[in-house]
Design a protein that fits this description.
The protein is α/β, with parallel strands linked by helices and 124 residues long. The chain has a single domain, classed as 2,3-Dihydroxybiphenyl 1,2-Dioxygenase, domain 1, CATH 3.10.180.10. Helices cover 23% and strands 36% of the residues. It has four helices and eight strands; from the N terminus they run βαβββαβααβββ. The strands form two sheets. A four-stranded mixed beta sheet has the order 1-4-3-2. The chain has a four-stranded mixed beta sheet with strand order 5-8-7-6, with helices on one face. A hairpin with a 2-residue loop joins strand 3 and strand 4. It is globular.
Length: 124
């Protein structure tokens, strides 16, 4: 088996309200690559994930995504500039903070409850 033949790896992110979740992830800064009634592919740079019209509360609230970026402060500034908290009042949003494990993490939950860790290594 040629292990170098892997071309892509995607997580299937759950969505309680598929249309709201699609809008939310677009607002975050992901590009909607394609979509149908049950699934949507979002991209950023060379990375992607699949948003699926699927929701089991316990699963969704324990689902996490990690995104390593050069500067989490720029993401935070983007979220503040677009009024992310005001547009989606039920999400959790915490600014970048140094964690004990040596990276800075900005936390944001999507409207379904999926927790995004947007991290950088500044000041590590």
């Amino acid at each position: 088996m040629d292990l170098s033949s892997v071309l892509e790896l995607n997580a299937f992110v759950p969505a309680k309200d598929f249309h709201v979740s699609k809008e939310f992830h677009s607002d975050l800064g992901f590009e909607l690559d394609w979509s149908n009634e049950d699934i949507a592919r979002f991209k950023i740079a060379s990375f992607s994930f699949l948003l699926q019209k699927f929701h089991v509360q316990q699963h969704s609230e324990n689902f996490m995504m990690s995104l390593m970026v050069e500067d989490a402060d720029r993401w935070w500034e983007h979220f503040e500039r677009i009024g992310l908290r005001e547009k989606y009042p039920h999400i959790m949003l915490k600014p970048p903070t140094m964690q004990p494990w040596g990276i800075r993490v900005l936390y944001v939950s999507d409207p379904t409850g999926v927790l995004w860790h947007i991290a950088d290594r500044k000041n590590a």
